[in-house]
Design a protein that fits this description.
Chain lengths: 354, 251, 123
Amino acid sequence: MSVKYTPVQWNRNKWIYDAVMLAGVAAFLWVFLYVTPEVLNHDRAINPQIHNARAFGACAFVMLTVILCIGPAARLDKRFLPLLYNRRHFGVMTAFVAITHAGYILNWYFNFSSSDKYVGLLYANSSFGQIAGFPFEIFGIFALVCLLILAATSHDFWLKFLTPPVWKRLHYLIYAAYFSVAAHVSLGILQDQQNHLFTVVFMLGAAAVIVLHIAAWLSERGEAAAKDGAWAKVAPVGAFRDGYAKIAKLANGDRVAVYLMEGKLSAISNACAHQNGPLGEGKIIDCLVTCPWHGFQYDVRSGRSPAPFTEMVPTYRVRIEGDMVEVHPDANPPGTYVEPVPIPTPPSSEGVTA
Amino acid sequence: MSEKPFFVGYLPAPGPLRMFLLAACVLLIAGLGTAGYLMGAAQDDPGPGAFRFDYGRQTVTGVIEMTPYPVLHVVEGNDRIMPGDSFMMTAAGKSGVDSRAMPLNGQLAQVSGIVLERGDLYMMQLRGGRNGLRAAEGDVPEIPTEPQGRWQLSGEICDGKCLAGAMRPGRGLAHKACANLCLLGDVPPIFVSTQPVLGSEFLLITGPGGTRLPRAAYDYVAQFITAEGEITKRGDLLVWEIDTDTIEVTE
Amino acid sequence: MDVAQALVMGMQTWGIVGALVAAVFLTIGIDRIDEDARGAYAFRPLLIPAVLLIWPIILWRWWQIESERAAWAARYRAVRAPYGLAVCLMSIGIVVIVFTGLSVRQTWPAGIAPVQLTKGASQ
């Protein structure tokens, strides 16, 4: 959470996360760079620069694949949420690995010529009119620029400054980048590769990303049945559990998290002020709604983060009609206090939460 | 419905989640290591081309011929390079030696540099300036030029230097931009034929009528193609005047 | 080559403008629009790359905040609708490009032998 910005807000879990991630990257690079040359045992080894470029390029692809699998995996199974927690560091590391790959390529294939290497990169191959022999470097450049933009805007300052929706839209570039990487590989190394093991590993990675994302998207679509009317129905009173929320989707597309705390109902925006994380999928800890993504906390009655933090989310009015809990779709400005609505009888499922 | 563990980033992970996360961490590290092995060990053999620094610097004398790519027909050889051999030359990096060789066209010259070798193919990367290429005294012998007729060949257009060993691998589509950049820098283009032609697997390529490789052919560099053109044997070297209109990509 | 040179020059210009925007934004602008940044300096160098890359978006947001044009509720409207579209486009795109790439893949035509079409004068 904010207060004063620092370069990185470290905590124990982030240290562990980064250590595991770096260990994985180091394992990949070490095996690729130092173990496989022994295994390959070619009469004349691949140029070290090309071997290095391939190692870092392949590593960036695998890292990007893992990163893209974490999101939908956490949607489908909440136990993966901790992997989402510090994913931005994973992304920044990927950008560094990718730029190392680009550096080796640029300083080998496009160096040693009389023209500037950046100019050479852009004009050496101009066969844009064909698929085989297409200058696939263009796809790599595009993906790299996307990764750099995402890595450069990963600080929390950019979330607050750009607002989460703008930031999120910008970060949808990751999907364009992944497609671009797939094109870069398909029209590049895949054209030459005689050992099809590489092709198989590449296709399995891409298939995992596609399947998980489609599955997450379909399951989310299934959950979200739009509701109409002035007051939007949320759920029957009996469905609420103390400390947890039910999420309602309003006709305008906004989502509301209705929490039951100490026998009273309160409604706040489902979108966390930090990264628009789903507050309704969090829980109440120490009387505060806690976001499942990065642990940002809010008072459920006012939508305000506890002092000294300054984040606020909008609140909503709640009422009970018969057995049905409803919210009014007009949001109150962020931080507006709303008196919680007591539920008439204790929740019927009281014994279940124990 | 049991109480599900809820992870908050800045708090210790809840007990039941820890085993799951530990397994995920181990799997991630092991998975990345395995991926590195599979992808690294799947790399193809880059072929036998190499700079032969182990041969040491080679200095020979011969007749320069602009085909238009400069070729040296050896007159006075050494223990590795025999009189009667013909070879192509490049400068350091992605450049040819055209500007240095042009004034000496048809004359005797001494060249000095490092050999690049790939099987039967070899060329020389000359030292800089006059150390690499300078006029020599002596009689200029007649270099035979023998037309060998029109041929249809299948294979790949490569830049001679990377193919001969400046890069491993130095051919193929992933290397195409680099090959184009070499060719633009006047490194001689070489055709790798699927099967030996008149005893040679490698031919120097020029455009029709002794011109440079036409730009239209650049789109086909590193692809597998079939094309037609006249072959001439110049000294010991086959030169193929590729007819770009006849280039076809093979299946 | 002219196009390539123009592109490289364009990128250099983009970066130079970005550097100017970064110099102004990170010294003056940031203090005006975000109270959490006042007195915090160590994190500012980390922001430079983003300004170099996407300075037009930063100028646009800066202007929006200064002129108080953005509706407060917009910040809480989580972006979800484009997710399905993005995922579908990416998935279809990857499948298409991988299969296109594999379909144009060539194998070395080792079986095609050289054919002499005409005899040479010396033969």
